[in-house]
Amino acid sequence: MRDPAWARWMLTAVALVFLVLFLVLPLAVVFAQALEKGLGYYLASISEPDAMSAIRLTLLTVAIVVPSNVIFGVAAAWAIAKFSFPGKSLLTTLIDLPFAVSPVISGLVYVLVFGAQGWFGPWLIAHNVRVIFAVPGIVLATAFVTCPFVARELIPLMQSQGTDEECSAVTLGANGWQTFWRVTLPNIKWGLFYGVILCNARAMGEFGAVSVVSGHIRGQTNTMPLHVEILYNDYNIVAAFAVASLLALLALATLVLKSIVEWRQTGLR
Amino acid sequence: MSIEALGIRKKFGAFTALDGVDLHVPQGKLVAVLGPSGSGKTTLLRIIAGLEFPDPGSGRILFHGDDVTDIPAGKRGVGFVFQHYALFRHMSVFENVAFGLRVRRRRNRPSSATISERAHRLLELVQLDGLAGRFPSQLSGGQRQRVALARALAVEPKVLLLDEPFGALDARVRKELRRWLRRFHDDIQLTTIFVTHDQEEALEIADEVVIMNEGRVEQVGTPQEVYDKPASPFVYQFLGNVNVMRAPALAGALRADGRAAEVARDGQIYVRPHDIELTPHDAGGPGLSAIVRHLHAAGPHARLLLEQVQTREQVEVEISRSELSELNLRVNDLVRMRLRQSHSFDEDYAI
Predict the structure, then answer these.
(1) How far apart are CA B202 and CA B194, in angstroms?
(2) Quick one: pLDDT at residue A259?
(3) How far is B259 from chain A (nearest CA, A)?
(4) pLDDT digits (tens, 9 = 90+) for A206-234
């Protein structure tokens, strides 16, 4: 089918204008603003103690959340794709829950459960454990919000691959562990990697849920997105954009990695 | 090693896949389990392999007289070849074949030189040694099938189980490969069960055929036995084309040898299209009058669709091309038909 030339040009132009206006321009603004007062100020903004603390907290959260989501995601996808058991469709639906509810609500749920007035609040206070307004709450909220990424990526992939290769491995004498490491994992590694990239990006950038449970204590419970907001509200716009540029850089790196993975996957097929 | 299955039952939810199946495969034989899809044949094979388990308390699997019902697949010493090969797609052909040896416990694992030597020897056996470095996606269907076979044989199984081994191949490769399998089996003498829905395949290469339908065994016998003496209408119909005629239609029909056709109480008789003899209508003698409705003469045999004059029953007949030209038949001609051979089944024979 051939569309008239003007139609093709129009469509391309609309897409390009949209792209520039809503994606490229904001991205450029982030870096332009960040570097407005020079490289020295930029480096100072991202290396002052509160910023460093926010970066450390974000990295810590990611370091806990991403591996736990990988384990959960692989286990859930394995169970859903390769076995049938009662409650399977319920589990599949539950995995999608974090996509369906607003992140703010996810955060609030944790406040209701673990907060001072929550179900476990008095018990936690009595045992001197802080969840809300502390690192555990941030980790929990982030884990909740990002929990579908790995599982969602793997379920269709594993379902399409079926169980024949695993059955072969079993008849050839492999135990469960060998079957997983030598047969299942190599078959899903690119899908898994893709899920990890997405999960990582979201874990670093999560704002809503973390904002509710964090308490915004500078130097203690501020993650990078929260720190950006605080700086911005303090009219320290250049510093805000400096920290934001780090997140933007991460997003760009993620996109590059993602396209490499996609390119590898199509290359293999 | 002989294989026995005794009283195997298996349900998947409300669906009964196997309803009390007994099977006995003698040492060193090549046995075909033949049945339509949904007859339970693959489930039976998977239960023998240990990939599925019979319903609790329902039956037992014996290998060489030893109960293996509760032994997991990996310890039964079976080689299993899957319908869609199930090769490890991220491993080379060589690594696929070596897999079963590499996953052994350290004390049972051969040295890597031995593994390599054995894998290459097996690839030679299936005539694929030149392709050891290829990946499964770079092979043709028939080559993949042979890699799967070599991989299954690498662990030195005591029995070989093949699930629709030629099901996914095109017709020509399928024929070649099944003859190859027969010769191969004659060389290695390994007790082998293969599952198929293709009666031609089963009758051509198996020592013994087990015919299954709706989760039960209908008949067991050599290809000739099951073909010549089918135990039930199902077997008769499954093993080839068949005409079912109501007996009243045959009131005047005599068999070619002059005797009346046997008719069971259900009043139906079964005739294969090539067991019907046609003679010119005006020649007289015994037989039924019929009108030629269709004539299909492409291929080695001519197929005719006749309509029996009295009852209007449709009858399919297969005769040689030379017979057809002798009779000089055309559509709407009258012809006389007689039965060379027919079958009938007592109605109390439950199917």
Answers:
(1) 9
(2) 83
(3) 56
(4) 888 888 888 877 778 888 999 899 989 98
β-strand pairing of B159-163 with B191-196: parallel
What average pLDDT score do residues A195-211 get?
89
Secondary structure element (H or E) that encloses residue B9, with its range: strand B3-12
* Below-70 pLDDT ranges, chain B: 247-266, 346-351
**Cα distance between residue B97 and residue B88, in whole Å:** 10
The minimum CA-CA distance between A153 and chain B, rounded to whole Å, is 19
A82-120 burial, b for 16+ CB within 10 Å, e for fewer?
A: eeeeeeeeeeeeebeebeeeebeebbbbbbebbbeebee
Query: Could you tell me the sign of the dihedral formed by the alpha carbons of B222, B223, B229, B232, in that order?
Result: positive
Could you count the other beta carbons within 10 Å of the beta carbon of residue B199?
21
Residue B136 gets which letter from DSSP?
G
Q: Find the closest chain A residue to B135 by CA distance.
A: A268
Question: Of the candidates A175, A171, A183, which has an alpha carbon nearest to the alpha carbon of residue B160?
Answer: A171
Task: Return d(Cα B225, Cα B208) in angstroms, integer.
Answer: 9
In the three-class reduction of DSSP (H, G, I as helix; E, B as strand; rest coil), residue A186 is classed as helix
pTM to 2 decimal places: 0.78
The secondary structure of residue A143, as a DSSP letter, is H
DSSP per position, B265-317: TT-EEEE-GGGEEEEEGGG-SSSEEEEEEEEE--SSEEEEEEEETTT--EEEE
**Per-residue pLDDT at A64:** 94
Residues sharing a CB contact under 8 Å with residue B303, sequence separation 6 or more, in sequence order: B273, B295, B296, B297, B316, B317, B318
The nearest alpha carbon in chain B to A179 belongs to: B103
CB of B151 within 8 Å of a chain A CB? The answer is yes
CA atoms within 13 A on the CB side of B338: 17
pLDDT at B350: 42
- What single DSSP character describes residue A215? -
Q: What is the pLDDT of residue A113?
A: 84
Residue of A nearest to B76 (CA): A171
The sign of the CA dihedral A158, A162, A165, A171 is positive
Q: Which of B187, B216, B220, B188 is nearest to B206 (CA)?
A: B220
Measuring CA to CA, how many Å separate B146 from each of A77, B165, B173, B313?
A: 32, 10, 12, 48
Query: Which of A171, A174, A175 is closest, CB to CB, to B80?
Result: A171
Burial class of residue A247 in the structure, from the number of CB atoms within 10 Å of its CB (0-12 exposed, 13-18 middle, 19+ buried)? middle
Strands B334-339 and B314-320 turn out to be unpaired
Euclidean distance between CA atoms A226 and A53, whole angstroms: 12
d(CA A102, CA A104): 5
Cα separation, A228 vs B230, whole angstroms: 83
pLDDT at A268 over 60: no
The pLDDT of residue B48: 93
Q: What percent of chain B has pLDDT over 90?
A: 40
